[in-house]
Protein 1
Amino acid sequence: MRFQLPRVVTAEEAADLEERGEVVVAASLREIAEAARAGRAVLVTPADLAAGDDGDEPDAAAETAAASLCAWAGATYFRTNRPAEVQQALDMTASIRGDRPPALTRRALA
């Protein structure tokens, strides 16, 4: 499988990917890492990973943090209700890992 940058998908796209068997649905960082090492595309829902024991909906910061951790572990597709925030976190994580160039670089700021 060729490398693909992580991206946000809609619920319909996620369901279609699952139905066609193109992704592994993961519920933990360990599952994500194992599937990614095996060369599989991984679908995660960051809100599920960021939800507390009380079952409340996580705030935006917790969900984007969970998305970043999942991307670092190798997740490919992200199902979320906060697409703009999560995609920004995914782009940042890919830049830090060196998978994509930063959107803006500046030199000689001193």
Protein 2
Amino acid sequence: MGTRSARLGTGEPVTVGIRPEHLGLKHPGDVAVEGTIILVEYLGSELFVYAKLADGESLLAQAPGNAPFKRGAYFA
């Protein structure tokens, strides 16, 4: 896996894509976001957690199939 550089001016918006399997939920010391779970998609050995963040953005995270996430739950 390599790196790429780009020339951006100060203050220019940047969009970053992160794959769901690279996100973790509730690990001490990690960067945290606030939001509400809007859908939990069970796929057997894993599940996808769809959330609406406090700023209105959406988030998709992947978790183990036995993770206890519930629709409507708030997280911070």
Protein 3
Amino acid sequence: MNREDPKQRNRENSADERALHSGFRQYGIYSGIVFQMLATMGLGFWGGKKINDWFEVSSNLLTVGIGFAAMALALYNLITQLNKIQKNEN
């Protein structure tokens, strides 16, 4: 008769569950970063358009300038968050 140790089986199941939860956790973290970047850039361009309309500038210079500043802020935030994640994994 082949008997398995129930404790060994529970350890294997818990290891599989930890790996599964770790994958979902990483997915959540990275997708949150993406949505944060999209929101930052979207608000930057939207705010730039509103400011451009407020000052009644004929060109879209303020829209583009503030939008690119928001993109730079989003990329800076991305790099700092990825560095934090990398430090936590090590």
Protein 4
Amino acid sequence: MRTGNLFVDALPPLEGERTETLLTQRNLVIERTVSSADITPHEYVQSQDEWVVLLRGNAILNVAGEIVELNAGDYLFLPAGLPHRIQHVSEGALWLAVNLYQIKEHLISVRESGHED
């Protein structure tokens, strides 16, 4: 059994984002991300499904051409292959992401990284 606290060591980096893997179990990966307000928008098109909740702060995303505003407590499901980008995020925004990989894809990723929790 492992315990932790999502709000411990949650200071934002000087720029960009800091992502930490909290749990890897079979084809499920849970990550915590802390954002700086100084980000460079980057388009993501992920191979896995992702459910994300904004625990603290606010953000504006462009999801396949649609503007989505998120505030603390708001969540969003991003199916695999859906293009999205963070347009704006508040300093210290705290995210929790639950990623669901295809089994085959996840096993390849684990082999490449050399570990599974």
